[in-house]
Fold:
Amino acid sequence: MLMVENDSFYEKYELFGCIQCGKCTGGCPVSLNSPLNIRRLMQEALVLDDLESIYQRDDLWACTACKTCTIRCPRELRPSDLIIGMRTALIEEGHIPKTVIEALESAYKYGNPWGAVKNKRSEWAQGLDLKVLSEECHAEHLYFVCCTAAYDTRVQNVARSMVTCFRQVGLDFAILGNDETCCGSEIRRMGEEGLFEMLMEQNAESFKALNVRSIVTTSPHCYNAMKNDYAQDGLVVRHYTQVIAEAIEKHNPFSKEMKRVITYHDPCFLGKQNGVFDEPREILKSIPGVTFIDFDRSREKSLCCEGGGGRMWVEASDQGPRSAEIRIRDAVEMGAEILATACPFCLLTLEDAVKTTGNEEKLKILDIAEILVEAL
Amino acid sequence: MDIIVCVKRVPETAEADIVIDSTGKGIDKAGLVFDINEWDNYAVEEAVLLKEKYGGSVTVISMGPEESNETLRRALAMGGDEAIRLTDSAFAGSDGHAIATVLSQAIKPLPYDLILTGVQAEDDGYGQVGPTLAKMLGINHATVVNGIERIEGNTARVHRELEGGLEEILDLELPAVLTIQSGINEPRYVSIMGIRKVAKKEIKVLGLTDLGIKPDEAGENGSKTVIERVFLPPVGEGAEMLEGTVENIAERVVSILKEKGGVA
Structure:
């Protein structure tokens, strides 16, 4: 019988409740391009009797933690949590891909999974003259930047655009500077529960010490972690699209027309997992001149880009087309000129897919914050 | 098979901006992140793999201040059985020779078949401790070991990495010191839970008198080398810094490579 610490897998994940209907695999974005079959895994977890039998399974690392399987399960089981539980077992034994080890060790040592040093975390903000929260320096909102937006040269532009937007709508905000530490979202989903708790405690302590009441995030992953995993009392956590949509409703900040056809890709951690579907669309539709079109697979049935669940640090299998490539082809086919999103991981995976499908001339991938800056 | 692994806690400098300290003989370590020396991590993994294969015990030894406990606990979480930390104010400023003196005194009373060290340390890069330790203990050694093929009776067959992709195969009589090359294995991940589980394990602490070392045998007094000066290499001639957009830089790189015969 498979055990996690003193819990058995079948009890913890209610495996006997599974009726093998297959809705989980039917909705799984990686079932077509990887060996992962989540319906079968629910069954196998019941009959496997030792942990060693899962050590060699690469399919466990294909999961993007998009949670479609859990959301669609008619028995309200949590197949996606089973995978994370299995990853935890692998991690405790140390049998994990090298790229995952590097990301985890980096998060432990440097407070980010990208192997970048801590004292360069706020280099993206050079020349922006931002407030950094301290005992002397207060602000109404903490802007939580995210490791990827802070260090990735492409996504840094999103963080800088965010600052322009916040200033335009008159938001009183400050950052944590070099003291910002990884939110731990992906760390937890890679299965490193102990490290996630450590990062959560570090962040929760600094929020308390600096009397932070309101957090605005770049990334849906930080947003989801802080809102649902931390669930700190008295702390309001919002994704930036929620804040901007609210501000636009009160006061129209746009001065330019933007005659472009734009579609929007729902990040799983923002849409499916937290129900934020309308705000990003409202922002885009409110830009003068924009023609907004939606994907057929949008909102609840949106196709995952495959950037979540630690997949940014796992070599992808190439058994079939990547979901991000399917997304790009669909966007081009329906005549979109800009594919907007609101997540650093989606931005990077979609932009890669634009290049691998050779559609750089036809389609531009931009974060909503970047589009806003063009229209302000 | 009783195995002793010598490990060192070192600052990580690969990504950091390095500043020379006020003495001019070292670097400013404030703000740097410390971790187990990379080669030593492979040595610990190799010891644990050998234990899993042949049975026995793994003892980890580190010379350093209390912070080195972190490195020792990490090694215990990987599968080490016992940990010893060697510390004394008289050890400060030890070079490879003095470190080997201290380590050899700690190792002499212990049972051992194999002693593993990393090939070298990331911080000072001397690569001396392993061979010097073997000499002091009067036993065999092999350096830059990138494979331990088998151990039969008291003989170990090991592979050494040589220049130009050559490999040497040696049979060594045990006990012996092996300095382990990076890449010999894939060190396992050490989880936070794993480290927490060994948090209460005792780490034996030994100082100068416990080890029977005279003050002039360790630290600066016991060292054979004196650091004159540490400095960042001056910017040399011939380096051209490319500036501009990514596209411009890429074009320029390609044309330079073509010019200099790097690509056809």
Notes: The first helix of chain B runs from residue 38 to 54. The first strand of chain B starts at residue 2 and ends at 7.
